[in-house]
Amino acid sequence: MNNKQIILLFVLSSIFLLPSCYKQIEIEFPQSETSAVLNCLFTNDSIFNVKINKTSDFNDSISYPVTGAVCKLYTDNQLVEALKSVDKDGFYSTTSGYTAKYNTIYKIEISSSNLPTITAIDKLPNPPQILNISKQDSVMLDEEGSYLNQLNITINDPVDVLNFYELTCFAYYKYDYSEVWWLDSIGLQEVDTSYQKTLLTPQSQDVVIKNEGLLDYAPTTLPFSDALFNGQVYNLNFNYLIPTYSIVYNDYTINTITNYKLIVSIRSISENYFKYKKKFIIHQANQYSDFWDGIAEPVQMFTNVENGYGVFAGYSTFVDTIQ
Question: Is the dihedral of CA 85, 91, 95, 99 positive or negative?
Answer without folding.
Answer: positive
